[in-house]
Amino acid sequence: MLYLKKGDFIWGIILLSVALFILMPATHIIFVDFTAGHPYISGFIKFGILATMGEMLAIRISVGDWKKPAGLIYRAIIWGFLGIVITLMFQIFAAGVTGALEKGYLPGKGSSFAFAFFVSSIMNLTFAPTFMAFHRFTDTYIDMVYEGIKNIKAVDVVGRIDFKGFVSFVLIKTVPLFWIPAHTITFMLPPEYRVLTAAFLSLALGILLAMGKRGGKK
Question: Is the model's pTM score more than 0.85?
Fold first, then answer.
């Protein structure tokens, strides 16, 4: 059983501050304009902050306390980089599905739900596994560096990754049961909110991953 600690309130205040900045009329305009004018920078910031918070929440749930993961700054930078990539992928998959619907390659032309569902499904069945595997690789590499391991090679990192758990839980369970439904809703939102919503979803994913780790230990 988890008991509330000082870190819980700090984490909650940060999340509330981000939400208020987006929702308050005065700052909402700043958020929308900045997102439209600087999509890559905003994608970096959104994921760098929110996804890192999700990762820290996963640690809080799995070990019962707030602990800074090894190489926190590097992890945040990688999340930021992935935020840039996701910003681009959202545009590519949205444009591709729009074209396929218009030309009749996919059913549901004119339906906002069909558009959102196909973008989410195709993206999560093609791009998402690569994205998640890359993040697992970088996380494992950082762990090995901070364990003091020298001369780390790519094959060493790959050999350290639990691919059985990665495939059975992250891909087979979270992709169809969490990511596809969640991103279907995401792509029914206005474009300026999609990357932000994806970043917020990383908080929920942090909980799911922590539950999976605790279940595995039991």
Answer: yes
Distances (CA, A) of 57 to 1, 21, 181: 15, 21, 22
Handedness of CA 88, 123, 48, 9 (dihedral sign): positive
DSSP symbols for 47-110: HHHHHHHHHHHHHHHHHSS--PPTTHHHHHHHHHHHHHHHHHHHHHHHHHHHHHHHTTSSS-TT
Give the model confidence (pLDDT) of 21-65 as tens digits. Answer: 988 998 989 988 998 899 999 999 999 998 888 888 888 888 888
For the segment 54-68, what is each residue's pLDDT rounded down to a tens digit?
A: 888 888 888 888 888
Give the largest CA-CA distance in the chain: 56
Amino acid symbol at 8:
D
Return the structure tokens found at 32: 């929308």
